[in-house]
Design brief:
single chain; 410 residues; alpha/beta; Endonuclease, Chain A; 2 domains; 15-stranded mixed beta sheet; two-stranded parallel ribbon; 17 strands; 39% helix; globular
Length: 410
């Protein structure tokens, strides 16, 4: 009797565990707080613990590069436990050196300070820049240049599990002063999850284990008045060997959005799967608009972008070309509810080859902010017409076609 009773209790306990019961999903209060129509999108990213959505976050949208620099250095100097950082580009100008100096000073204070360097983008620079960081105690890891076709395009800073930065801006004068771009500063439960995404890359490049003695305790952080509060945030890392989650999210949205999808991207050379989804979306009545710079920072990209215009316009997609300052932002907004900002462009390199990270928001106020920004950009831009595209010379069309061949490697 005792044996049978013990077995019964044991089996009953096991069956009571939701994660072990076939066909019964684990209850997630945050997923339940997301509108039912968009829960499948959030669930696309929940294959790894660090990509689950979290509630109760604050989000400051930063479009002024100099403010980003000032806030970042201020938060770094207030660090008590650790600073983890990775950027695609880290310039050597005086303002960028302020960031390096903050890292060095905190490393001298015995904090865990780590930087992941992208070798490909640092070919023109001597090693002494990072060697000096090492001399002051900063741990510098290299994403190996041998992975030339799979670049680490992520932009992440996490500090003390308390505050994080991510988005489109790198460290350098073009981002501080010359270009328009979009970044975010976040606090809340999404921060340690972004730090886990950082740690995945740190471990991949063979970095030293995390110190056993450092606390990783959350501390209070200042939040500006203009920040959005109680936001549902989902941090997503896209790794070329583990599927193409960001590309899949675009396809899902194009197939399931109910009203509109606006996309702002500096580089638009989409893979075939995305192009087909764009066409399907317009065919079922979705309002799809693209905001693309008239001139980018790479001359070969401009004709590559335009090589896709005719196909998109014939399908009914609206395209706007912005002039003036180059806008490096990578944003989408949909249905006044879901939006994203991050490092991934709408091109084959970002969506299929690079390591990228985007942040998704399930929030009306944040999405409205992004929508107003994109709408203002479209209002100030020229709408591209099929008539104009068809008037291009044969030479120009040939140049666009040649650039399109190069597009997958741009």
């Amino acid at each position: 009797m005792r044996v049978r009773r013990f077995i019964g209790i044991l089996l009953g306990g096991l069956l009571a565990l939701p994660s072990l019961r076939a066909g019964v999903p684990v209850r997630d209060s945050v997923l339940e707080a997301i509108r039912p129509a968009y829960r499948p999108l959030a669930e696309l990213f929940t294959q790894t613990p660090e990509e689950r959505p979290t509630a109760g976050n604050t989000v400051e949208i930063i479009r002024d590069g100099s403010r980003k620099l000032d806030m970042l250095v201020q938060d770094m100097m207030a660090a008590q436990d650790y600073i983890h950082m990775e950027y695609f580009e880290f310039y050597r100008d005086a303002e960028s050196r302020l960031v390096r100096k903050a890292m060095e000073l905190k490393a001298m204070d015995s904090l865990e300070v780590r930087y992941i360097e992208e070798d490909f983008m640092n070919i023109p620079y001597p090693n002494r820049f990072f060697n000096q960081m090492r001399r002051w105690g900063v741990e510098v890891g290299h994403y190996n240049i041998l992975h030339l076709n799979r670049r680490n395009h992520q932009k992440i800073v996490t500090i003390d599990n308390a505050v994080a930065y991510t988005g489109g801006m790198n460290i350098g004068p073009t981002y501080f002063h010359e270009w328009d771009d979009t970044h975010i500063r976040v606090t809340g439960p999404c921060v340690p999850l972004l730090d886990q995404i950082y740690s995945v890359m740190w471990n991949r490049i063979g970095g030293n284990p995390t110190r056993a003695d450092y606390q990783k305790t959350v501390r209070p952080v200042s939040v500006p008045e203009e920040a959005y509060r109680n936001v549902i945030v989902q941090m997503v890392s896209d790794e070329p060997d583990n599927g193409h989650e960001i590309m899949d999210s675009y396809i899902w949205l194009l197939d399931h959005c109910q009203d509109y999808l606006y996309i702002q991207t500096p580089y638009f050379t989409p893979p075939k799967a995305v192009r087909e989804a764009l066409k399907r979306a317009v065919a079922r009545g979705l309002d799809v608009r693209l905001l693309i710079p008239e001139k980018t920072d790479m001359k070969v990209v401009d004709p590559a972008n335009r090589s896709y215009y005719k196909e998109c316009l014939e399908a009914g997609i609206r395209i706007f070309e912005s002039s003036g300052r180059f806008n490096h932002s990578k944003i989408f907004v949909a249905d006044d509810y879901v939006s994203s900002v991050g490092s991934a462009n709408v091109d084959g390199r970002s969506l299929k080859l690079n390591y990228e990270n985007n942040t998704y928001f399930y929030d009306e106020a944040v999405t409205r902010d992004f929508k107003e920004y994109i709408q203002a950009g479209m209002d100030a831009s020229r709408e591209v017409t099929l008539e104009w595209v068809e008037q291009w010379s044969a030479c120009r069309k040939m140049g666009n076609g040649l650039a399109r061949i190069l597009a997958p490697q741009l």
